[in-house]
Each structure stands twice: as structure tokens, then as C-alpha cells.
Amino acid sequence: MSQSNRLAQGGRIDRSRELSFTFNGKSYRGHPGDTLASALLANGVDIVNRSFKYSRPRGIVAAGAEEPNAVIQLGSTEAAQVPNVRATQQALFEGLEARSTNGWPSVQRDLMGVIGKLGGQFMPPGFYYKTFMAPASMWMTYEKYIRKSAGLGRSPMEKDPDIYDHLNRHCDVLVIGAGPAGLAAALAAGRSGARVILADEQEEMGGSLLDSRELLDERPADQWVAEALEELAGLDNVLLLPRTTANGYHDHNFVTLHERRTEHLAETAPRENGRRQARSRLHRVRAGRVVLATGAHERPLVYGNNDVPGNLQAGAVSTYIRRYGVVPGNKLVLSTSNDHAYRAALDWVESGREVVAIADARPEPVGELVEQARAKGIRIIPGAAVLEARGQNRVTGARVARVDLEGFRVSGDAESLDCDTIASSGGYSPVIHLASHTGARPTWRDDILGFVPNLVEGVLAAGGTQGVYAIGEVLADGWEAGSRAAGDTGFDTVEARLPNVGARNEGKPVALYQVPHEKPTLRGPKQFVDLQNDVTAAAIEVATREGFESIEHVKRYTAMGFGTDQGKLGNINGMAIAARCLGRSIPEVGTTVFRPNYTPVTFGAVVGRHCRELFDPERYTAIHQWHVEHGAEFEDVGQWKRPWYFPRRVEGRMETMHEAVARECRAVREKVGILDASTLGKIDIQGPDAREFLGRVYTNKWAKLAPGRVRYGLMCKDDGMVMDDGTTSCLAENHFLMTASTGGAAAVLEWLELWHQTEWPELEVYFNSVTDHWATMTVTGPEARKLLAEVTDIDLDREAFKFMDWREGTVAGVPARVFRISFTGELAYEINVQANYALNVWETLIAHGEKYDLTPYGTETMHVLRAEKGFIIAGQDTDGSVTPEDLGMHWAIGYDKPFSWIGKRALTRPDTARTDRKQLVGLKPRNPEVVLEEGAQIVFDPDHAIPMPMKGHVTSSYYSPTLGSGFALAVVKGGQQRMGETVYLPMVDGQVHEAEIVSPIFVDPKGERQNV
Amino acid sequence: MFHIYCPYCGEYREEEEFHPKGEAHIVRPEDPETCSDEEWGDYLFFRHNPRGIHHEMWVHAVGCRKFFNITRNTATYEILETYKMGEAPSITAESRDDRAAAEAETAEKQEGVRA
User: In the prediction, which pLDDT does B76 show?
Assistant: First the structure.
């Protein structure tokens, strides 16, 4: 197909090369420098999508980020699929494959279109709420079909082949937008020596100057752009980021910039010297000052059938002609409220095509551009506007009439004009999205008929963003903002040097948003306000009639400004219509809040490298490699990888977890086992007041713990609830080693620091994490002493080295601390050595252990063994609502300690003193085969009507090979007084388990085995 | 994301380095045993939640591990000062009365247009 709309010359495209691409499976050709949109227009493609709700054919209307219709799906393979790309922002590359996101079975022949046409009255605003919300249970079904017909693109189902980077950056001045204001600001700040980042979302920097009719220093504007960019590129303190969108403006001048590095080259990032390149970069910028030079979006007029392909924005027409050498039609009618839009007609005529007429809403159009149009013989119809477009798949004509703006009515007879293109302009809306992200509300200005941003500290705005549109003033405004930003961040500003621009004689614009029609809005042809979300002027009118007066409610009821569009084209028109219907002014109606992101960002860019193996750090113990080599299955505990169990090959097959754990449990109870306990949190505490401090943060007493002794401690919050537990050893009079649970170690250290720094700074005490410095190996079981004796010089005599003692010496030839503490209830030694010796020590123990059947065991066996002994795990058997008394640990509470330790006072509050609190007990299922579910609810009366009063829940539950039955720990209301009673556990499947309340200590209740 | 000046490090750092720890200047009663249940309950559970000036405690968790205080405007997220543990804020809701009133007035005008 030929490029029928391509001009013979002009534009910033490389005509020496051709690129081929496909759209909806059909092949087309374009040039380097084209966007997908300009190439489609060059090839005369009118319909690019079907609309969201009514399924009407839609064409390209804009030339930039504000494009609402040409939202397309990219990708030739499944892995390369990218949804929600604006064709106006996608550079053309060889082999590009694009599809419409909407339209089934095709955009040309759309089944839904029939429904949409029939169904105007079937789909009023709030349609989804009114029709589909009831019954609620059917919503998921409705939604599936709505989405299928609505399209909106789809994500790839295969793994993304590309990589993405995140970069942290700092600068003095961040300039967003590289049009005239942004370039001037960057020059001013850059020349002052400030560190400047200049980011611009387009393929080329220059903004409106790239398609401007203006002369700068008597030369075409793009020449000045080229010189400015060359100078900026030569400054070491300036970073230029083209193809980079500032998507979010966050607190304290933190701005996220999304730089697309390869999307203009190919659908997946090409390799450079054989290496993968990042497809995009997310720059996380902390700026001293931010200059918003984001310009303004032209506001289309709202008239009948203004969505038929061939209706474009006036500015976009100029852009396509001047920048891409594409005229998107043959016969143009222009409908405008201002001078600026006349450029579209002038550019059209100069391209050798026909301008049928200009309908100017102003009764007496004056101004330089108006005169130029008159001089070219273009017919100008004053005081008029296009009421309605004709045509279905393409504009075939326009009805034009005089309109009475004050009275909102048509005041003359309509005239039908044949044309294939209607361009419209209702003036400009400053792009205030980023300023709005900061939470600052914009201010309406009647003189420019638009909202301008209110700026929080550290932000400046320049040019179109501020409602300044004349090119000379824009340059000066940009320079001023750049200078101020540099000055604010401590740089000496330099004298302004800017090109000369002749002042234009401009006529004043009039306020026109919705064009009146002969018929009332509700009866006339559809007048679209938000093309992407298919919101019409009638819908807004209905919303206001139904009582939605707040613009936020109107937005939600009609969907105006939703989705990827974020109200770029339609919001102001929508507010103006709501204001008209409510009899208020636009500032009284206010504006909705714009949110990040300004344009869609791929998940890849958001995630960066934080995925797969780099998603979260993994922590390994010093013995990890041995576990891997010996077939351990691993469990995640916080960020740690801990051996879960060590399955063996038995009789030609691998053990199940149940079999492996049963074997490991028996080994510990009958012979000896070894556990890698290195992940246990270890905090080194030193200082003359260390002992006093321990007495305040633990519930029990520490005053008399002698060097060489170890004690179990419970830690509460000041509300009296258990937060952690562990042992602390006295290493010397002023030196202790505290252990904390693997998952809670960091929080415990912060907790200690909190109390020391904020409540008791007078205590001299110091804390340090030594978790990674020491590796811990637990050797436990009846044979533990014999095994350890083979490799240590420490006297292991049961009288010399008692339970809850620790000794220093060597193990396997390296310095070690050995703690005689037990989490299994068996004779146990916890051997601590420097982490880098650990693997050797472990292997030495394994070698010597062979004759004792030494069995490595994992966390699952550890849990079974500790639960058999009734030892709690903080965070599993407690949940922040359990006191030491609830746990039956009265023995660990030092009520008579002199200092009112953390948690003490709360234990006598009426609620914590209740006797019917949930208390820790053991549960023995009546059926020994049953292993209760952790989390299962406990009731006293299984015959009670539902809802049954819930009296507790299971916190830990396992099968015990030692007991030959299932057993559990649970919390039960008043449980300590209910020993021997039967409770019931109704399950989801209808079964009701019976269990007896017993002591939580199932094995060796007197604790004799650990003392042997 | 906040940009927070750590008064101990003497530098601005990213919010990612810090943990928020709630309202500042909550003093643990000198003698908890003589507190009534109500007084103890107030200390444990009751906190202010102002719109405007708020003093809050943060910790430079992956930096110097020091706790310190921030005076922050909860409406604008502006951090007005940071100061060391044990120091008094130089900016308070009372000292900012005029400004707060002006802000409240602005906020009033914007009611009804919030998402």
C-alpha cells in the first residue's frame, strides 16, 4: 500500500530509508523518524481501534502522550507482547508488529459495534453499576465478558527476555520537558554550573519548536534547538535523557523517570557487543529543584460525532504535516476558539490541500494568523462552530452554524460542508499532572481559560505549564525558572542570552468547551468528552441530574479521566460541562486529582533487577554447602535457607518427609543428632550496666547470673505480651551473649536500642549483632557427651559442666564456646565457633559421629522435639496477645524485681489478669492417627448452633514418633483449669475431631533427660 | 519517598534507610506501679493523629541505628526539622498557629474534590 498521505517533502524523517511494519496483520511502509501513528496516517489508515463501551470506530486524534484512541498492543511473539502503547509515542522500527487492543473480531467489522449503535439508550452512565452489580455473585462472570469486549490489551504469557535497570540519581536542577521553556531552563541552569538533568518523553528533544512556524533569530526554530542541544551535550554537568517520561512526582522532590532505551530499535533489546542491554531504566531522582516545563495539551471541542475517524486536534494536524510530512486528509474544516489553531489551516493549505472553511467561535476574529489565513483566501465563518461531524468510518462532512456562546444555543441556520477532516481547538490546558501528584490543587485562571499548578516548595514551572504560550515569553520564562532553580541550589546565575522572537499580534480566545446543538444534549448526536473511556456530554449531564454534584463523584459515575488516559484531553471539558449543568463556574466545580503514572510504565521497568534470584537476598549458613551436598530439603526462615529435613534413599526410594522426620526424631531421642542452628540471632551485650539492662527488658531475674552460666529469658512489650524468648549467657561480669529467634533477631536488637536510647540513656551498655560471626551446631541425644568428648579439650564431666553452663575451649582444634542448653529435652551441647571454621568442625563431628549413628536433622524435627517438650516458638505459639502467665511460665516472671521491668505493670491490668484468657495447653487427639490442623478452632460444645462460640485454636501440631500419636499445642480459654476435659475441633470437611486437654509437656515432664 | 536529615549522621538520606516508630515524646511513667489502669492505658495505647504538625520518632535503622525525632506536617508531608533524642522541637503546632490556620482554610476550600 502506498503512503498516499505522505508529502513529497518536508518533515524530520529520513526519506532515504524505508521501514516495513504491520498493523493488524497488514503490511505498511514508513520512514525512520516516523512514529507508528504518523506512519499509519501516511498510509491512510483511518480506524485504529474500537471504543471501550460503544465499540465505535476510532482514529488517531493527537500526536503525543495525550492520544486517547491509538492505544495498541505491540509484539510479534508471545514473550514480546506489550499492551497500552500509544502509537503516537512509539517510534517506527523495521519489522514492528502492532495490533488494535480493542475490537472483536476485527476493528473493521466489529460485532459489538452493532450493540453499541443499538444500545445508546441501553448503556447510560453508571450502566455497569446499575446493570451488572446485582446479583453480586454474577459480577465475575459479567466482568469477563465486559473485559473481552473492552480489550485494553493483555500482558505476555511468557517470560520477559529483557532486563531492566534502576538508577539512583541526584541533581541540583531537574528540568522536565525539553521544549522551548525546558531548553531555556536547562541552558540557564547548565551554564551556571549546576548539575542538571533534562528529561523529555519524545523521540527528539525540542517539543513544539520541532513543528513551529516561528523564527528564532530569523532562522527556523529547529536550528536553535540543535544548537542548544549541542551546547548542553557538551556540558559535563548536564545529563540529557531523551525518550524519558517523568511519571511520578513524589515527596521531597523525588521524581521517577522512565527512560526507554531500546524500544525505538526493536521489540526486544538488541545485543550490544554480544551483551544484553537494559530495555529501560527507571531513574530515581532526588532533585534540589524541579522545573516543570511540561507544556500544554490542546483541548479539543466537544461536538456531535466528534469521535468519527478524521476528527483531529488542530495542533496535531500541524505536527503531522511539519514534523512527519504527513497530511491526514484532503479537505479540512477547522473549528476553533483561538488564533493558535489557524496554524493547522495554514500548514494544510501550504501542503497543497484544500481548506474548506474555518469556523471561528469568535464573532470578530482578529490577529496575525487570522490575517494570514484571509490572505490565502481561506473562508472564515465568524461566530460559528462545527455542530456535528458526518460519516461513519471516516468524516464525510461537517455541519457548521453560528452559535450563541452565552446562551448555549445555535443561533443561525446550519450549513453542510463536504470535507474528510475536521480539526478542532478549544485552547490549551496546561499539563499540571506532575504538580498534581504532590497533592497541590491547581488554580483556575480566567485569562488563559485553564488550570495552572500550585507549586509546593522546591518546584518551579515555566512556559505552557504556567499558561504562557507566546514563544518569546516562553523562552524568557524558562530561562528565569532555570536561573532561579540554580540560584536556589547555590550557583551564581549567568546573564540571559536568548534568541530574538518577533512579538505576535494575537486575538483573544473565547471560552468554548461543548458546542451547542439544535437538539438538547441528551437527544442530539453523541458528543464525546473522554474518548478513551467513552464518556459523553450527555453522560455528564445525566450524572448531574441524578445528583452527582462533586466532580469526583461524576468522575466515578461516568469513568471520565480513568485508566491510562488520566483525563489528559477530556477533564477540563468534562468539568466545564458539569459546571454548566450545575450552574456553577469551573473553579467552583474544581478538578479531579491526577495520579502517577503519567503514562503507563511496564512492570519490567517497575521491577528492575529485583526479580528472580535477586528478588530478596538469601542468607546461607557457613555449613550450607554441606547440606546441599547431603540432599537437604530447605525451608525459608526469614531470609535464611535452613535445612528442613534430610531425606535418605531407603530400599531404592527416597523417604517421604514424614519418614525422614520420624527417623531423625528417633535418632535424637535414642542416640545423637546434629543441627545447624547458626541462624539463631546472637546479640553481644557489654558495659557496666548490661546486667541492670537485662533485668529491665527480661521478665525474669539476672542479678545473680554468674559468669559461665546461662539463663532462659522471656521478653515482653510494655503491654505485657510476649514478644520473644531465648537464652542469655554471662560471658563475664560486664559481658553477655543474648540469643533471639531467627526471625525476630533484627527486631529484638532494634528493641534493645529503642529502650536504651530513648528511656535509659544513663545506662552504659552497648549492643552488637554477632549472628553472622558465630556458627552454631547443636549436638544432642544420649550419646552427645561421648561424641563431643572425642573432639574437645573441655571437661564434660556432668558435675563440672552442668546443664545451663557454658565453657570455653577448643572443638575440632579451633576456639569454641560450648553451651549446655537444650531445645530438644535431651542432653545437648550447642557448639559456637567462628563461622569460617564451621564447615571443618561440622565435618569433624560427622566423621567422629559415624560410630554413634550421628544423624543430621532439620527444622521440622527440631519443631517436633521442642513441641514434645512444650517449648514455645515466639510468633507461632504466641501472637502478640499472650502473656507469660498465659503460657504457664509463672516461674519466669520476677514480680519482686526492684525495677518495674517492661511488661510488668500491664500484667495486673484487669484484662491481662482475667482467668478466662486463652492459655497454652497440650492437646491429645482421641484418635492417635489424627494430626490436628494448625490454626484449627476449638469449641467446647460441638452440638451448639452455628456460629459456635470459639474457645481457642491450635498453635503447633505434629506427629510424634516417640508418643506414636499426633499431639498439639493450643491456646484455650481458661485452659490451665481444664486439664482432662474434652474439646472439639470442627473441620471444613464436616469432621469433628475430639481432643483431651493435657499438659503441654508430653515427653519427660520432670526434665531428667537433659540433666544426665 | 521522604528525604530525611539524620541529626546524628549529619546528612540527608533516603527513607528506605529509616523505620518510623510512632509518636515522639511518649514518656514512660517514672513509677509504673503507682499509675492507675487508665493512666497506664493512656501511655500504652493512646496517640495523637493531628492534621498538621506532628512530632514523630524514627530510627536510622540501616545507618547509624540512632533514634531521633522529626517534626512533620502530616497534610503536606513537609519535614520541618529533625532533632536528637532528648532535645525539644523548635517548631510546634502552637508556634505555627497562624500558618496552620491558613492551611486549614485552604484545606477547607478543597473539601469535596478529593479522590
Answer: 87
Q: Where are the alpha helices (DSSP H) in A110-199?
A: 111-118, 127, 139-150, 180-192
If you count DSSP H runs as helices and E runs as strands, how many of each does chain B have, helices first? 2, 6
Query: What's the rounded Cα separation, in Å, for the pair A332 and A352?
Result: 12
ipTM of the complex: 0.90
Contacts of B61 in chain A (CB under 8 A): 750
Q: What is the pLDDT of residue A441?
A: 85
List, as one string, the DSSP characters of A564-585. Answer: TTTTTTTHHHHHHHHHHHHT--
Of A746, A207, A732, nearest to A198 (Cα)?
A207
pLDDT at A136: 54
- Taking CB atoms and an 8 Å cutoff, what residues of chain A touch B57? 758
A914-1012 homologous superfamily: Aminomethyltransferase beta-barrel domains (2.40.30.110)
Residue in A550, A595, A759 nearest the CB of B28: A759
CB contact under 8 A, B65 and A753: yes
Burial of A893 (0-12, 13-18, 19+ CB in 10 A): buried
Would you tell me which CATH number, out of the four given (1.10.10.10, 3.50.50.60, 3.20.20.10, 3.40.50.11540), belongs to the domain A300-426?
3.50.50.60
- Going by C-beta distance under 8 Å and a sequence separation of 6 or more, which residues neighbour residue A1001? A869, A870, A922
Write the secondary structure of B45-101 as one string of H (helix), E (strand) and C (coil): HCCCCCCCEEEEEEECCCCCCCEEEEEEECCCCCEEEEEECCCCCCCCCCCCHHHHH
Q: Does A302 touch chain B (CB under 8 A)?
A: no
Grid cell of A267 as nine digits: 521489540
φ, ψ of residue B46 to 5 degrees: the values are -95, 130
Q: How confident is the model at residue B103, as a pLDDT?
A: 60
The model's pLDDT over A113-157, given as tens digits with 9 standing for 90+, comes to: 544 444 444 455 665 555 555 455 555 555 555 554 444 678 889
Could you please state the CATH topology (level 3) that the domain comprising A19-150 is classified under: Ubiquitin-like (UB roll) (3.10.20)
C-alpha cell recorded at residue A901: 521491668
Using the Cβ of B22 and the Cβ atoms of chain A, whether some distance falls under 8 Å is answered with no
Owner of C-alpha cell 498521505: A5
Give the phi and the psi of residue A767 in degrees, each rounded to 5.
Answer: -125, 145
Q: Can you give the pLDDT at residue B95?
A: 82
Domain boundaries, given as residue ranges, for chain A: 19-150, 163-296+430-488, 300-426, 519-584, 914-1012
SS3 A965: strand
pLDDT in tens, A56-68: 999 999 999 999 9
The residue type at A965: S
CATH of B3-110, one of 3.30.2270.10, 3.60.21.10, 3.10.150.10, 1.10.3720.10: 3.30.2270.10
Average pLDDT over residues A416-439: 95
CB proximity list for A149: less than 8 A, separation 6 or greater: A55, A104, A112
Q: Do A900 and B31 touch (CB under 8 A)?
A: yes
Percentage above 90 pLDDT, chain A:
85
Cα separation of A435 and A255, whole Å? 11
| Cβ–Cβ < 8 Å for A501, A465 | no
